[in-house]
Amino acid sequence: MDIKELTTPSFLLDLDVLEKNINDMAELCKNNNKRLWPMVKTHKSTQIARMQRDAGAEGFLVGTLDEAEKLAKEGFLNIMLAYPTAGEANVARVISLAQKAHVILSLDGLDAAKALNEAAKAAGLMLEYLIIIDSGLHRFGVLPKAAGKLAVDLSFFEHLKLAGIGTHPGHVYGASSSEEVRKVANEEINAMKQAGENLKEAGFAIDIVATGSTPTAAYAAADKNITMLRPGNYVFYDNIQIALGTVLEKSCALCVLATIISRPGEDTFIMDAGSKCFGLDKGAHGISLVKGYGVIKDHPELLITDLSEEVGKIKILGKTEIKVGDKIRVIPNHACSAANMTDYLIGHRNGNIEKTVYIDIRGGSFRKPPVE
Ligand SMILES: Cc1ncc(COP(=O)(O)O)c(C=O)c1O
């Protein structure tokens, strides 16, 4: 079956491009002697995680406990939590997870650590953790110069063991040129170097110096202090990555197939896909990087200006062959948000449909609800 025969909206995944993206990142890590622990929140798919593992990923970074539990259930046994965990029910889930898999926590303070330590003690477990370093995003984490002090404070928790440091330079998504991306990468690398030195001065030796962002991955891979990369978006790439200069359009693996359903004005089309396919992202962390709500492949004369939930408004900027009833393929601004909008992606090669790729790790989609 050809993708042209599909009903719309449909989520399309170009398998050749996906495989190339996965293999290229794995090669980058191998060639630079870095451990690869990709972030699964981008795809939330055990099939894609398996492809990443087959290509060389040693473990996975997760954004949610749902992701962690589903991975463990499917036999992925190296799992790192990207964020601290707090609250009794959540801590209990971490403990239960750590009884089945090798789990590495991420911590940036004593409160969450205390509860996790007590629960680990009660279960007779030793939990490894990374200290989250703030390399410029200013979301959470500690500054590099505070890493040693936090490690000292955390060392009093007998059931927690320091394994290393981690950061996500998410402020790279505010860059407006390749030079600015490079500047953020330097900040990321310097922050990790400083944090490592600060820990050493405080008497701590660490194995893991982990960073993670798709736009800065190549720079981090080339740095000798970094030992682990944890990129997420690279499996799909998207319009935001194109805008940052990370890749060209041909590297984007995910798009939404939509149909033009109306031409309400001379310069306007309406398509049958809206924010419930694309999300409303125009950049990460509240930063607007791109024009419009996605790139319409092969049609630079069309700009998506507005999204309602189920339809999108397109401005016709120049002469176009497109008419009502035609199908268009739209690369989303943020592929991680778009993939989270669907139960499955339709995998194809050159338009020939080959297989379904299930998004089977979405929040709550497999977990038993608390009441029937
Ligand atoms: C802690 C952490 N690490 C890694 C990543 C992956 O970043 P990217 O999607 O830019 O590759 C993210 C993304 O949100 C993150 O929050």
What does this structure look like?
Helix 3 (65-73) links the parallel strand 3 and strand 4 (78-81). The chain is globular. The two termini are 39 Å apart. Helix 3 (65-73) runs parallel beside helix 4 (88-98). It is 31% helix and 23% strand. Strands 1, 10, 11, 12, 13, 14, 15, 16 and 17 form a nine-stranded mixed sheet that branches. The chain has an eight-stranded parallel sheet with strand order 2-9-8-7-6-5-4-3. The protein folds into two domains: 3-10 and 246-358, Lyase, Ornithine Decarboxylase, Chain A, domain 1 (Beta Barrel), CATH 2.40.37; 15-236, TIM Barrel, CATH 3.20.20.10. The mean pLDDT is 96. The chain is an alpha/beta fold and 372 residues long. It has helices at 15-31, 46-55, 65-73, 88-98, 110-123, 147-154, 178-201, 217-222, 239-244, 275-278, 335-339, and strands spanning 10-14, 35-36, 60-62, 78-81, 102-107, 127-132, 160-166, 208-211, 228-229, 254-265, 268-271, 295-296, 302-307, 312-316, 327-331, 344-349, 352-358. The chain binds pyridoxal-5'-phosphate. Pyridoxal-5'-phosphate is lined by residues 39, 42, 61, 82, 168, 212-214, 230-233.
Concise summary:
This protein is an alpha/beta fold and 372 residues long. The protein is 31% helix and 23% strand.
- Which fold name fills CATH's third level, the topology of the largest domain? TIM Barrel
Number of strands: 17
| Classification by helices and strands | alpha/beta
CATH class term of the largest domain: Alpha Beta
Fraction of residues in helices?
25-40%
Task: Based on Cα principal axes, name the global outline.
Answer: globular
Instruction: Tell me what portion of residues adopts beta-strand conformation.
Output: 15-25%
Query: How would a crystallographer describe the biggest sheet?
Result: 9 strands, mixed
Number of domains: 2
What is the fourth-level CATH superfamily of the largest domain?
A: Alanine racemase
Multimeric status of the protein: single chain
Unique bound compounds: pyridoxal-5'-phosphate
| Average pLDDT figure | 96
Query: What is the H/E string?
Result: EHEHEHEHEHEHEHEHEHEEHEEEEHEE
Please tell me how large the radius of gyration is.
Answer: 22 Å
Runs with pLDDT <50, length 5+?
none
